[in-house]
Structures
1.
Amino acid sequence: MNNIEKELVKKVMDNELTNADAYNLRVNGESVERKNNPYIDIISKKDKSGIDVHVKDNTLFGIIHIPVILTESGLTETVYNDFYIGKNANVIILAGCGIHNDEHKDSEHDGVHRFFLSEGAKVKYVEKHYGEGNGDGKKILNPITEVEMQKGSSMTIDTLQIKGVDNTFRKTKAILASNTTLVINEKILTSNNQEAKTEFEVILNGENASTHVTSRSVATENSYQEFKSNVIGNNKCYAHVECDAIIKDEGVVKAIPEICANNIDANLIHEAAIGKIAGEQLTKLMTLGLTEKEAEEAIINGFLK
Amino acid sequence: MLELQNISFERNNKKILNNINLRLDENKFYVITGPNGSGKSTLAKIIMGIEKPDTGRIIFNGTDITNITIDERAKLGIGFAFQQPVRFKGITVYDLLKIATKEELTKQQACLILSKVGLCANEYIDREVNGSLSGGELKRIEIATVLACHPKLTIFDEPEAGIDLWSFQNLTQVFKQIQKEYKGINLVISHQERILNIADEIILIEQGNITKRGNKNMMLDTIFTHEVCSKGGVACE
Ligand SMILES: Nc1ncnc2c1ncn2[C@@H]1O[C@H](COP(=O)(O)OP(=O)(O)OP(=O)(O)O)[C@@H](O)[C@H]1O
Ligand SMILES: [Mg+2]
């Protein structure tokens, strides 16, 4: 890897790659480095590009890293990654995609991630997206995440789009059996003419299935964001969806909530709030000595933290 | 020294402050009191730069600060605790204290500041400054952020509001200590006799005018015999 690529990996991974129990590093369309261990097995797919990750039953605190880096302008790829998490296994998966584009051709990475959680499995999935480079070629990321949760399993999905992604369309779909919990935290910052769309569909099939979806976003300059969520409750279940957005300059945010209760004991809540930074928040931080610009940054950083 | 010269403030054809002239000296504890809606908070906001007066000048330690911004006044050493503390999303108590001190602040130092306002620090330091905190907790944190700035002029707008009876005693101790530690001007807006009692000087504002001013003993005698309309504003005709 050259220096640009090394730096890019750092931007999307807080942790050193080699600290992981298992990892797969993908650079410009090829898997270039991989590590497996007795509990976690990463295998390349035969029919298409991507990997299968198998985590054995009862694996405790496995850490898996799967960063993807694109520095070749004009590269467009769709990658299929499947995760099979064994019974009562407990893993943390750090995914991230960084694109560096200095040319005028568009670069695009579309990751299709499917998670199959067996009974009692626990997964924390963290995904960071980042774009950089001086070319006018676009940096495009369209992730699709599908989750199937068996009895008693739980999953947390943290997604963060930090900077520099021109176009993104994120689709997440989850089906939950009984006594499962799915927590989704999404954070997005857009600027310039960027566009970000997210779509969530959570189907609560089992008794005592619950989900908590939180989206916090900031749209600045001429950027556009759309948040669409659909939660379907087919049993005694609980859902809380929260969309909270700050708009600045000419930024536009659209939130489309949909909740559907097909069972008398389904309890579904959707909250959405869009607005500019509250004037009194700026004022308070200015009384503590921050300039207006610094105050604005502190409020946005806190909001997206 | 803080000097207000001919400060007037009018909104919707209503005179909220009417040609206020006031001089506040170093090392003194002032309490402003007066009926609801008489213009006390407005005056405090004008000193901090949150509101701009229609006329008049503000001189702080020899500098004309009438036209400078809020943050510039903060940097000159003016601190203001809001009557209604502001809530945030994602900003923690520790973050706010770090912003206030403008320097490296260890958690231990932050805890020390919180303990001054009677908060058990470990429970609060990482809490977000949002609606999940109770009114009294927010109020204490608000006071702590101002203490953390070490201002030369501190303004507290009804610091006692929402603070329970048991802690109230401690709060008056905090003010006494501020008075001892920070050699500066302390200005507190309050309706509470206990706070009035620790003042060097009491200033009565009614309908946008300073109607009485004097040392504590003289004022406490007159204030409570003074006719003030309970519906706010000046005494009813
Ligand atoms: N920006 C504004 N626009 C219109 N009216 C205002 C504005 N600011 C203050 N006022 C009015 O000015 C009056 C004085 O308000 P202020 O908040 O200063 O009162 P106060 O003395 O602090 O009262 P309290 O004891 O209830 O806190 C009130 O009648 C208020 O409604
Ligand atoms: Mg007031």
Note: The longest strand of chain A covers residues 90-100.
2.
Amino acid sequence: MQPDLQQKQQQQGIDVAVLVSIGRHPTTGRARRAEQDARGLELALAIEAELPGTRISMLHAGSQDDSSEAALRGYLGMATGVGMGLESMTLLEQPEGSDAIPALAKHLAATSPQLVITGARAERGEGSGLLPYALAEHLGWPLVNSLASVEKVENGVVTLLQALPRGQRRRLKVRLPAIISVDEAAPAARQSAFGPARRATFAITPTTPEADSELAQWHLAPARKRPKRLKIVKAASARDRFKAAASKSEGKGGQVLTDVTPEQGAEAIYQLLKEEDVLR
Amino acid sequence: MSEIIRRDPRREWIARNRLHPEHASVLAALGVNRGGDGGAVSEWLGPNGVVRKNPRAIGFIGPNGVKRIDRSGLQQGGQSTATTTAARDSRRTVTIDQPAFLVVVVPDLTGGRLSGHDKDLLGLARRVADADAEQPGAVVAILFGEHKGEGGGELKEQALGEAGIDRVVHLDDEFYAGFAPEARLAALSAVEREMTPRFWLLPDSPLGGADLGRRLALRLGERAATGVWQVEADNEAPLGWRCTARGAAGSLDIQRPLPRVALALAECAEPVDETRHAAEHLALAASIPTTLSRIEDLGQVAVDPAGVALAEAEFILSGGNGVKQWDAFHHAAKVLGATEGASRVAVDDGFMARDRQVGATGTWVTARVYMAVGISGAIQHLQGIQRCDKVVAINLDPGCDIIKRADLAVIGDSTQILAALVAMVEQQRGGQRDAA
Ligand SMILES: Cc1cc2nc3c(=O)[nH]c(=O)nc-3n(C[C@H](O)[C@H](O)[C@H](O)COP(=O)(O)OP(=O)(O)OC[C@H]3O[C@@H](n4cnc5c(N)ncnc54)[C@H](O)[C@@H]3O)c2cc1C
């Protein structure tokens, strides 16, 4: 009975919830779909293509007005031809300046999807990137950050590729339910199609808003340019300062091997590469 | 009383008379400054309270045999080497036995070394810890994984101390390796229980600090400040500090009181460069509970080095005009698992693609190991490799500029050395496979 059920579940795919926010165009500042969240949805669509029967639900917590609606429709237009499930998204309505975390946590706990996909950082507001972690802590689910792709989903275990700096990848196995966050390493999002975006609807769920009182007390200002770090020369005399300013950096004077056989030279290089752990 | 200058006419007379047998001893009694080793006194207080100088006693013989006088007061007759060694040893040693509070830093320690970002962060920790000179705090560093440092033994520990670390908790058990957020978090929670630090500082970097710091903040129930780039003292803030953090994808500056957990950007403070700290090792009293992880790390995946963008490649094999056999070069890159780079000449001559060019007009690379084969090290090329950690050069000419930049330079023919290196790596790999 049990394996049978699992088989069925596997065929049916999994429930994926994608959390989307409203982005901000870096130059004009207009509302748009957020870059990372769109990549998250792209990832969910990829899972659906791999695993037929996967249900994607989109979730946004915030206020409903014209500009945010236009931005949110940007996501809804991404699911052309996929058909199921994306004709609408859930909007947890709350006024501007409310804390999104309690509302999302409550909704996720109630609907219990198996996989939650979020962007790493919002493009508006605090943008601290704490939300996925807060949800993970709240729900007690494992969290994997900086996802590159989902390789397979099997028996409640998902195999993922995590992006590391320097273009490296790491393979992880995570037990569902889990939260994964995506950043620039995930595949780029497809374009949004206008028609499906227009036709889609919003399922509005009212919430009991909790004002983010701490944020309201902070002082927000457009980002100043950070001061460039100066090369500080700690020299007691004018002569030393002049020398530091005028001379080419001499380097620390590494080891120079002259009059060695190619084998000895290669040996020394090999030792260094081993020490630095770059040979795989 | 003591302000009154008492004259001793006889001693003054002797001090003026260079031929007097007691001249030197009298000058020494009067004198403030004595040049060189046992030379004549160069400066003393005259009878009317005016400083007198003996110009013959100061200065040194310059490189061209001409006597030079350095008025900056640094080189008073001494040899220049003496002052440079003094400059090298100029760090004050600071030990903090009874810290008023603790500031815990969890550096990334990429490749087993403190990165520039880590050092900036430690500089920030020092600022916070040393703000009140009466009651200094101590900086505790939690190191996960192996610490390689520069050199070994003593030097290695010194590097930690020179970065401004008072106490070290080194955890290099196997289960902290790789992606182990749950195990690391358990360890940090144990640190929190035992030490109750006033501040936690982590680097907001994709190398691990950003992830671990956010997890820690939520575990401790703190609302962390992320992307912090400025910290200032503020008496109105609960913890005495205020910070400025980047928000909203870098388009917003958020000014808020500094919370207990802060994730700071690179260049948030100047690294420590005047003091040397104890870097004393501590062990955690309680054993850390092993958590059953729901995340299993299957290890790094082999990625095609050719597919990695040059700017972020970790290991680059770069060829220049001194490479004679390009097939062998490509083969070497493949065997070593290195991303290929090139100097402009190699690109212009059509041996390499344009997007592989390293340098001022090409890509600025950040490799940990950069291997320059047959590259002379023109300034335009060296600019592009400024941020590389270790540079290895293979060149025929021991006098060229890349040799000065290189940490290891091998003088010889590139083709032969590369061939020997490839043979060595292949042999080692073969040996391993046989053993396995
Ligand atoms: C505006 C401008 C921008 C530039 N931008 C760049 C740039 O972005 N990147 C860049 O790389 N260059 C740039 N250059 C060119 C740069 O000035 C040099 O000309 C170039 O870097 C030299 O390349 P190289 O070191 O490969 O060649 P060379 O200077 O010819 O050096 C070849 C080296 O190989 C050694 N050698 C020869 N035979 C062997 C052998 N068999 N085994 C081992 N060693 C051997 C020689 O001793 C020599 O040191 C720029 C120049 C200008 C004017």
Note: Residues B 320-322, 324, 343-346, 357-362, 374-376, 378, 380-381, 384, 394-397, 400, 413-414 surround flavin-adenine dinucleotide (CB under 6 Å).
3.
Amino acid sequence: MTRELNVALIEQAVRDLYIEACIHASPDLRAAVRAAHARESKPVAQEVLGQILQNMDLATENGLPSCQDTGLCVVFLDLGQDLHLIGGDLNDAVNRGVARACLEGRLRASSLTPLTRQNTGNNTPAVLHLRIVPGDGAHLTVAPKGFGSENMSRLKMLNPSDGEEGVKDFIVETMRLAGGKPCPPVILGVGIGGTAESCALLAKRMLLRPLGQRAEDPRLARMEEELLERINALQIGPMGLGGDTTALAVHIAELPTHIAGLPAMVNMQCHASRHREMTL
Amino acid sequence: MIQLSLPASRGELAKLRAGDAVLLSGFLYTARDAAHKRLVGLLGEGKPLPFELRGAAIYYAGPSPAPEGLPIGSCGPTTSARMDAYAPALLRQGHNVMVGKGPRGAEVVEAMKETCSVYFAATGGAGALLAMRVKAAETICFEDLGTEAIRRLTVEAFPVIVAIDAEGNSLFSA
Ligand code: SF4
């Protein structure tokens, strides 16, 4: 049996989720920043974390984007293989959702052609990642991504002999080089293995994992904890002004890779960690 | 908390120390990459600037569009390092307060010491909180740049931290 789904519903969902994600901080993010605020020992860092918490409330109260950089709009769509899409081109529908969110939600238009720097005026096109999955559902996640943090992301094709230590050093080095630029406290999405592009996408997907949840594999979970400690020991602090809170979490996942390779990718996420999901 | 009115005098700026939490009130001019490029271009051609640079406080920010009933949309700072190529020339023309986020290059710090200027950090990502402290906003030039146009903001109790003081002391490590 196939189920029909009109792409107009996807358009509307993209619009709504994009606006919501920009305005309302998720409960896991609030809890993580609150906990960091309570733990923080440096006054300047405490002040900044306090402002970040206050900002979340004011954004919600006033219906304003919590950060003015409402990002490029990254959309993850898992489509059931028994689903039949009707009502027109799926890509157009997703882009219409983004354009409407930008206009109707008063989001900032930041999308432009890379070399001529011509702004598209409405944040289109979306960055759309599609997956075909079993069933007849459609699962949509909208994750606007600001570029202060995206710019601090790094991919490295390591040597297999570099091993786990080499990967860990690369991750800590990425944070050290980023310093205050990606609006710490940050979340590091890490992909290890695969090819260059599958590794990068895995790292991005790791940013969708709820805060407070560890990797299922105990080996990776231990690595996440160790890295979080090493990164916070750098004392970069909120906004790079010094302090105990540089990262809220490190989320790691692996993919099988080639006998000759060891790719690792860090996708840097600022404290404006925004993603909203819905099943259609 | 220390209160500072803008424009600020050199004497007042000289008293501030890295790490001080300060509330700014008065005028802030928004300008980011494209506007800086134009300002420095005008200076190079010896043409007049669209606003008085002497004593001006520049805020590195490109706000989201204003919703109905508010003077401005979300308006947190952008990464200051991208303005490092332009800032020394503007500081030498009398601009003395910069507000942004993240570390600055050595040449900017040198120019700050030479001109007794201060670099404040606002909290990146706190765009809604900072918008609430903006009482009025007026686009004064480069309207074609959209979010990057230069706006004059009237702010009240706008929260910042002295990130680099006029003696070059900095909160940023390396
Ligand atoms: S890095 Fe994140 S928090 Fe900082 S300005 Fe960009 S989107 Fe906002």
Note: Strands of chain A lie at 3-6, 72-80, 83-86, 127-133, 138-145, 154-158, 186-193, 247-255, 262-269, 276-279.
